[in-house]
Amino acid sequence: MSLEFEAVIGLEVHVQLATETKIFCACPAKPPQGRSISDLAPNSNLCSVCAGHPGTLPVLNERVIEFAAKAGLALGCKINSESIFARKNYFYPDLPKGYQISQYELPICEWGSLSFETQRGSSQVQVRRIHLEEDAGKSVHEGGATLVNLNRAGVPLIEIVTEPDFRYADEAAEFLRELHGIVTTLGISDGNLQEGNFRCDSNVSVRLKGESRLGTRVEVKNVNSFRFVEKAIEYEIARQIEVVKSGARVVQETRTFDSDRGVTLSMRSKEQAEDYRYFPDPDLVPARVSTNALARWRSELPELPQAKRRRYQSELGLSAYDAGVITGNRSIMMVFDSAMQLIAKQESNLAKGIANLLTGEVSRKLNEESVALEDLPITPAHFVDLARAAAAQVISSAGVKQALNNAWKTGESIDTIIEKHGLKQVSDLSSLEPVVAQVLAEYPAQVDELKSGKDKVIGFLVGQIMKRTGGKANPALVQQMIRKWVES
Amino acid sequence: MSKLDSLKSIRQLHQAYESGEWTPTAVTQHFLDQARPNRLNAWITLCEQRALNQASLAEEVLKLNGGKVPRATHPLLGVPMGIKDNLAVEGVRMTCASRMLESYIAPYSATVVERLESAGAITLGKLNLDEFAMGGSNENSAFGRVLHPTHPDRIPGGSSGGSAAAVAAGECLVALGSDTGGSIRLPASYCGVFGVKPTYGRVSRSGLVAFASSLDQVGPLARSLDDAAQVLAVISGHDPLESTSLGLPPIAGMGEAEMKGLRVGVPQELSWLGAAPSVREAMESCVEALRSAGAEVIPVSLPRVKHSIAVYYVVAVSEASSNLSRFDGVRYGSRSPHAVSARSLEEFHSVNRSLFGAEVKRRILLGTFSLSSGYSDEYFLRAAKVRALIADDLDSALSSVDCILSPVAPTPAFRAGEKTKDPLEMYLNDLYTVPANLAGIPALSLPWSRDADGLSIGVQLMGRSGADDQLLSIARSFGRVRGEDLV
Amino acid sequence: MGASVNQDLKSTTLQLGTERISKLALMSRLKLEDHEIESFGPQIDSILGHVAELQSVVVEGVEPFLSPVSKMAEGTREDRPRSNEALREGARKVGACAPQQLEGAFVVPPVL
Predict the structure, then answer these.
(1) In whole angstroms, what is the distance from residue B30 CA to residue B16 CA?
(2) Based on the domain organization, do A44 and A129 belong to the same domain?
(3) Is residue B386 domain-resident?
(4) A51 chain-B contacts, CB cut-off 8 A
(5) How many other CB atoms are there within 10 angstroms of residue B453's CB atom?
(6) Which domain holds residue A457?
(7) Distance (Å) from the C-alpha of residue B270 to the closest C-alpha of chain A?
(8) Cα separation of C69 and B80, whole Å?
């Protein structure tokens, strides 16, 4: 970015709430057996209320108030004891009533903030408001026709709006990661990015450094990956600077992000300057939060990601990276925390080992297999046992991987798996010495290479010893033994 | 069954069922025979087979109960009813008197309909109305105007014109209507029947096609106060399907207030000085009768009530413009034949929505204007504030009197076409009835007298919020004072 | 066309004009015939003329009255889904009302 210009960025994040039912009717918001709403047959998950039939009326799901308030508490917001629903009026085929029920003048939460780490150090951004609203359905254009599926219509959302405090694209992405960790830790949303349950709109403008007035704002809508948000904002900042430099004016508009080409594109929509004619919804009464309920919800707040990361690092010795990965994934975090419950105080050195497993092999497998950790037979106890076995050198690191894969599928205890598959590694010097001696005798050329400093060949020698011990030798120990021999 | 023409009340009907003089099937058949010719164009749909099935069920209930009507569980057993065609009855066409919903079959029943039918009532069919309940004369229906029951060149009032006319003409025993600015009370007055608008929140709106959500209420029309009260008692009560539903204490509706010492407020702002001579006469005679019976007739002041029409025609149209946005031909309702040649989604929507009638379109435009950016503060917000002042005025006055008395309309039923040239003229007809909707207080129309042409003139009573029972008991003593046997 | 401000400061009478009516019609998704635009204009002006009296009412410090029950009604429900059977039935009934469906989706026909 040029030295003359600075970017001013604000975010609006739509988070789908993980309640059982939709916000204003008793249709399921969570299909059974971990399926997602997009899997369901079109228009099979609706009723006359969420389909906007004549004479139907909305009734608020009490749980959404709790979830929104918890988000507000986690972000240090003022929680309004009464907040008002308003109608946002516009016409679109996937908006059944011709208006969206949202909140306008008096939302449920206001004026909080979030601190988070960036490559430039700590950053803090103000959260202007959090409000409740209903999701619209989905419309797909096919062969010129518009196909409308209302399964999603009425699913509850909170919209989290920040002040335009961001100045860098990567800062925005870090904020989103932190916010994502918070809503998933709170359990108010599954934060599933692919499903579109956590979507971000960015408002981007540029101005000359030192200028206090804001430039013309462009909205980049509905980006649902942190990386893409960063790229979209970067592109948009650069684009706007070019426009201004060329003497033209930035057009106030809504754009989308083409992730394949890495560019933002103008939406050919004519609804650019829509008049939503907001007014308080006469079919609803204010959402109420009592002081008792608020106190209870406050006491129910779990340890939030930032506090957790600090604790992981200071008390358990985890690296910042590992702490970040674990708190960024709710399933992994829950397994880690449960595992910590199972180890004794003097065993806290196991924490790092367990963390490594989770951030390494487990994360990889989860991505690859697209499964949920909760659905697998492997438990926190397995990870503890694995870490113990590795720390005691009972099994090698290859053995750990093999045992993990096994437990992943079968859920059998680690002890059983080690026995069954003969994973115990031999670390007993007296049984290993003869084998080492034999191999070194058989490969004098490689021994010479090693002596002359060609360190790579040690792998071959270790490999030979592993072969002759049926893979059971402790490879780290064998390596040590070879080196000692060679040195002497 | 010529004696059925003398049927005047539910009590009489139940006595006849118990004595075996009439059966639910015979009664239902009689009313269907009366309704079928549709002499007044009061009916849009008749559910003949469905009604006869319900009648058979009613007979079963009687049999199982040893020939007695189980009044505790089935207080409306075998009562033939008409339902205004903006209230959903599952499986039955609901048109709202609009081409937009010409073939729409309701996928669920309104809570009030479920309660009535559980209580044993028989739904004869759906009654004509002004399109989407917007109108005061039932001349705005896409299915043709409704005729006044005794004077066919006149209007029955609106928007529940079909309900009032059918009850008055004996085409059903009782009917449900809806009232947003007077739509039950006005036609009740013109047709000479009782019409009650309950306290807002007492009766469920779930299944009532919304016109103005903060004003709409469902209520009964009947030839006797007893019947209206019984129907009201059955349909009242908290409904979990409606957020604005209140859990008010149930209505018994059978008491009679003591006339001596009753404090009746008469507001100068709702005076009958500018009304037609026959209305003035009726009101004067009412006041005199009250005084003779020992009631105190007290002037009260409602200084801001004169703004009621202005407030109503901002607030109601604003809410309506939004409520009617759901009619776009995508998920239900008719599509215009021109829709296939639409060149954009805007055009698709606009062309379908041109199926609305003129009055509906006018109100949507007005409502959109009142809510639009740059005008919503001055129009919608300001009107809502004046509404608060009107509600305060009524609340204050009702703390010093037991009820407020006024005319229902400035004239008796007028001729068809008389007020259709200028919409504003029709709107001004609502001046007495609108205030109760703005404040959410209960109000009813009680037939008082007839003019020289035989046209009925009703008087309006308004009561304290939630005090519907008391209002009914006051109405009963008014009726006694009027000197006719009201049953 | 546009607003004409009455010299009397107490009332501002707005006259909407055909362009304004057309814009409102678009915003409301109403296709009006020319004769409708012509007749609605003066009618709406006349109604707004009556409504103008509200501008003379003193409303400072008055809270808007939005509903008779905003302070009283409970207005929430438990987060409990309806049964699968009820969901299926309900969805079926809603689907039966649709003018046009393609594999369950509601169809808005191709615009030209």
Answers:
(1) 14
(2) yes
(3) no
(4) 331
(5) 11
(6) 429-487
(7) 28
(8) 33
Cα separation, B346 vs C111, in Å, equals: 10
How many CB atoms are closer than 10 A to CB A335?
A: 23
**Secondary-structure percent of chain C, ordered helix, strand, coil, rounded to 5:** 40, 10, 50
- Whether B428 is in a domain gets the answer yes
Note whether A138 contacts C: Cβ–Cβ < 8 A: no
The dihedral built from the CA positions of residue B70, B71, B73 and B79, taken in this order, carries a sign that is: positive
Q: DSSP letters of A204-243?
A: EEEEETT--S----EEEEEE-SHHHHHHHHHHHHHHHHHH
Contacts with C97 from chain B: Cβ below 8 Å: 104-105, 107, 331-332
- Give the Cβ contact number of residue B359 at 10 Å: 18
3-state helix, strand, coil split of chain B in percent (to 5) is 40, 15, 45
Closest among A22, A117, A97 to A62, alpha carbons compared = A22
CB atoms within 10 A of CB A374: 10
Give the C-alpha separation, B199 to B470, whole Å.
12
User: B415: which strand partners?
Assistant: B154
Q: Is the ipTM of this complex over 0.90?
A: yes
Q: What does the block give as tokens for A206?
A: 């540029």
Residues B402 and B471: their CA atoms lie apart, in Å, by 8
Instruction: State whether A381 and A449 are in the same domain.
Output: no
Cβ neighbors of A152 (< 8 A, separation 6 or more) are: A37, A45, A135, A136, A137, A138
Q: Report the C-alpha gap between B431 and B447 in whole angstroms.
A: 18
Residue A368 lies in a domain: yes
Residue corresponding to tokens 């003379």: C56
Burial of A104 (0-12, 13-18, 19+ CB in 10 A): middle
Q: What is the CATH number of the domain that holds B237?
A: 3.90.1300.10
| Residue the block writes with tokens 């889904």 | C81
- Hey, which residues of B are catalytic here? 84, 159, 183
Q: How far apart are the first and last CA of chain C?
A: 33
Q: What is the DSSP letter of B377?
A: I
Q: Which residues of B touch C48 (CB under 8 A)?
A: 366, 369
Same domain, B28 and B166: yes
Nearest to B353 by CA among A91, C105, C110: A91
My answer on whether A314 and A381 are in the same domain is yes
Helix (H) or strand (E) holding C41: helix C34-51
How far away is chain C from the Cα of A110, in angstroms, using its nearest Cα?
22
C contact chains, 3+ CB pairs < 8 A? A, B
**Angle at CA of residue C22, ends C17 and C24, nearest 5°:** 95
Q: How far off is chain B from A107, nearest CA to CA, in Å?
A: 19
Q: Report residue C106: phi and psi, to 5°.
A: -75, 140
| Pair B171, B295 in one domain | yes
- How do the pLDDT tens digits run along chain B, 487 residues long? 457 777 889 999 999 999 999 999 999 999 999 999 999 999 999 999 999 999 999 999 999 999 999 999 999 999 999 999 999 999 999 999 999 999 999 999 999 999 999 999 999 999 999 999 999 999 999 999 999 999 999 999 999 999 999 999 999 999 999 999 999 999 999 999 999 999 999 999 999 999 999 999 999 999 999 999 999 999 999 999 999 999 999 898 788 999 999 999 999 999 998 899 999 999 999 999 999 999 999 999 999 999 999 999 999 999 999 999 999 999 999 999 888 888 889 999 999 999 999 999 999 999 999 999 999 999 999 999 999 999 999 999 999 999 999 999 999 999 999 999 899 989 999 999 999 999 999 999 999 999 999 999 999 999 999 999 999 999 999 999 987 654 3
On whether the CB atoms of residues A319 and A285 are closer than 8 A, the answer is no
Phi, psi of A283, rounded to the nearest 5 degrees: -90, -5
